[in-house]
């Protein structure tokens, strides 16, 4: 870090209360890691040295991961970046070092600092990296009331540095990784601990630090998410598909595409687009020739590929009625709010009052409504309220839905009052 950058760090602290810089020139460009770009660790001997260095380091550990979303199948990590006082920055290749559980054990007692932790934790878990304690700088920014909580805007607004973000969407499975990408990756953890310290001070000043600690603990303790049920239903453009036979075509094409993408280790969208799947479902083509005339199945597609997709269509066309998918998904919770007025006017009145109360409370606290209490929790409470709406019963219901203690304390009075709202 240059003398000018050091001076900026000492004199610039733009928090949520202070707002963003007056102009882009107010930020100091951060162009190089302070110790330079470290070599990529891709073997056991180099990894052992990193483990020893980070075990001997002190303080929190900045952690980040880069994936190849849109290029490769799944969400595996293709680069892991870490930084700790006394150890410097490390760039680790999980392809060459697929098991980082030894590194995780070496820093297990430290607080891990991540930005948008829920995005990186699944791919880190796959390589043995699971934190016991963490600090999420994106979530801290939300709780502190920042309007823009991406890493770049946060570093700029809080610390006064401009990070170069031009390589965020590149194919991180590329080998060897180009030097500009490695520089970008190293800079992502360069100031993460500094950002953490500044945000902790801001949260403490606003009286929100304990809220943040509860949120971080909940993230660290959360189990892995279960596999999504019927993931084919999330095909983009699915709202156009109305008939059950057409839905079966979407399912067959989606599953065939997923198998091919997994076998080839490429993003499913590179095998067949969602738009092409929906076009085939709507048209129900009876031959590969008819399929080839649809958008997404143009001249570049080989005869063999057309036949494999048409085979999936034919499987759906010949399914017995009993095997066709049902419209929509089984509800796990209340119906869509737009239907409440007809189904249960009293519940609709409760929900309207609850939303108004939560909005006002969140605005007064200068934080997003969804961080104060999740909309799903509010809907479930209003659709099936406790038999007697008291502060105690409402608090118990909120806790059962996973609300943290700070959330329960803040929203219980307003939600209790909303449950007592008479129907119009």
From TrEMBL:
Keywords: Hydrolase. It holds the Pfam family DNA_pol_A_exo1. GO terms for molecular function: 3'-5' exonuclease activity; nucleic acid binding; nucleotide binding; ribonuclease D activity. Coiled coil: none annotated. Its EC number is 3.1.13.5. The keyword Hydrolase applies. GO terms for biological process: nucleobase-containing compound metabolic process. It is an enzyme of class 3 (hydrolase). SMART domains: 35EXOc, HRDC. Residues 243-323 form the HRDC domain. Residues 1-30, 320-340 are annotated as: Disordered. InterPro entries: 3'-5'_exonuclease_dom (IPR002562), Exo_C (IPR041605), HRDC-like_sf (IPR010997), HRDC_dom (IPR002121), HRDC_dom_sf (IPR044876), RNase_D-like (IPR051086), RNaseH-like_sf (IPR012337), RNaseH_sf (IPR036397). PROSITE patterns: HRDC. This is Ribonuclease D. The lineage of its organism: Bacteria, Bacillati, Actinomycetota, Actinomycetes, Kitasatosporales.
């Amino acid at each position: 870090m240059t003398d000018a950058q050091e001076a900026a760090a000492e004199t610039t602290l733009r928090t949520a209360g202070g707002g963003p810089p007056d102009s882009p020139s107010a930020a100091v460009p951060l162009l190089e890691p302070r110790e330079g770009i470290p070599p990529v660790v891709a073997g056991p001997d180099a990894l052992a040295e990193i483990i020893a260095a980070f075990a001997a380091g002190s303080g929190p550990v900045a952690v980040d991961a880069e994936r190849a979303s849109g290029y490769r199948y799944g969400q595996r990590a293709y680069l892991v970046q870490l930084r700790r006082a006394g150890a410097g920055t490390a760039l680790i290749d999980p392809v060459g070092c697929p098991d980082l559980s030894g590194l995780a054990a070496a820093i297990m007692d430290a607080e891990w600092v991540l930005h948008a932790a829920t995005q990186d934790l699944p791919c880190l878990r796959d390589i043995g990296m699971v934190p016991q304690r963490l600090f999420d700088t994106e979530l801290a920014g939300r709780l502190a009331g920042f309007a823009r909580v991406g890493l770049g805007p946060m570093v700029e607004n809080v610390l006064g540095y401009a990070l170069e973000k031009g390589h965020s969407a590149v194919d991180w499975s590329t080998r060897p990784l180009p030097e500009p990408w490695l520089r970008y990756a190293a800079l992502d953890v360069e100031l993460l601990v500094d950002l953490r310290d500044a945000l902790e001070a801001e949260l403490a000043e606003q009286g929100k630090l304990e809220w943040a600690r509860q949120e971080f603990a909940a993230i660290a303790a959360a189990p892995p998410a279960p596999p999504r049920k019927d993931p084919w239903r999330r095909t983009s453009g699915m709202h156009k598909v109305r008939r059950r036979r057409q839905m079966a075509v979407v399912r067959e094409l989606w599953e065939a595409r997923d198998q091919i993408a997994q076998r080839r280790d490429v993003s499913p969208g590179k095998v067949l687009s969602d738009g092409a799947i929906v076009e085939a479902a709507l048209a129900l083509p009876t031959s590969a020739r008819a399929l080839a005339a649809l958008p997404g199945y143009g001249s570049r597609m080989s005869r063999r590929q057309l036949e494999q997709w048409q085979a999936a269509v034919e499987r759906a066309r010949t399914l017995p009625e009993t095997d066709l998918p049902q419209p929509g998904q089984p509800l796990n919770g209340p119906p869509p709010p737009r239907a409440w007025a007809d189904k249960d006017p009293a519940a609709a009145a409760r929900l309207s009052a609850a939303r108004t109360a939560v909005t006002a409370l969140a605005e007064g606290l200068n934080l997003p409504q969804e961080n104060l209490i999740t909309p799903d929790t509010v809907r479930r409470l209003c659709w099936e309220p406790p038999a007697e709406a008291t502060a105690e019963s409402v608090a118990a219901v909120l806790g059962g839905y996973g609300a943290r203690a700070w959330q329960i304390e803040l929203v219980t009075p307003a939600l209790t009052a909303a449950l007592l709202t008479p129907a119009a």
